[in-house]
Amino acid sequence: MSCPYGTVGQIYDYGVNADVVQKYDCMENTLNAACKPNASWIEPGLTAAVGLESHLFIFEGRHLYDTPVDHSCTDKYATLFVQYSCVQNYDEQAVKYEQISLAVATAVLIAFLFTVSIRYMYQGGKIVQLEWDMATVTAGDFAVEFPIKKQGYLDWKEHVYRAAGGPFENGEAPALALKKFMKHEI
């Protein structure tokens, strides 16, 4: 018998499971009650483990029963079970608490730093995107679509472009003259 932490505290139950199907049952029930060991040395042997981290319970060559029992209780497939508690003193618990607190605090710090670094990279990525966008300025970035109705253009061409002393007489192309006119008007 041994405890993964602390020492053996209290023996709750023990017995023998005669059936292979129930070999992992760890408490007395109606199926294994008839096979409960009744030898006088068993209880003192089990209670000797209380307060120890581990205890070798030797029963080889000894009989588990003082009185005759069914053959299935002593069969080669029968398994002995002992149910007990493991206890830890306050000092050991305090050390474990401090260790787990340190581990949790470290994990929280790592998560925080990871979040901050991801945020920094994300924000830095936005700035790089803006710099790249500014470095790749195209004519389309400054182009403005200004819809002009056909009749409005024809009126402008007739009354402004071809007017006396207008752009037509100065040899300007209609598109350049329209651009200058719109610039002046806007």
Q: How would you describe the overall organization of this protein?
A:
The protein has three domains: 7-88, no CATH class; 89-138; 144-185, no CATH class. It contains five helices and two strands, in the order βαβαααα. Helix content is 43%, strand content 11%. It is rod-shaped. The protein has a two-stranded antiparallel ribbon with strand order 1-2. It is an alpha+beta fold and 186 residues long.
Can you tag this structure with a few keywords?
two-stranded antiparallel ribbon; 5 helices; 43% helix; 2 strands; 186 residues; alpha+beta; single chain
Secondary structure topology:
Blueprint: E1 7-17, H1 42-47, E2 79-87, H2 90-135, H3 139-142, H4 150-161, H5 174-185
Antiparallel strand pairs: 1-2
Number of helices: 5
> What is the tally of beta strands?
2
Report the β-strand fraction as a percent range: 5-15%
* Form type: rod-shaped
Q: What Rg, in angstroms, do the CA atoms define?
A: 47 Å
Q: Report the average pLDDT across residues.
A: 85
Sheet having the most strands = 2 strands, antiparallel
Distance between the termini: 96 Å
Main sheet strand line-up? 1-2
Q: What would you call the structural class?
A: alpha+beta
Number of domains: 3
How do the SSEs run, as a string of H and E? EHEHHHH
Which percent range fits the helix content? Answer: 40-55%
Low-confidence runs? none
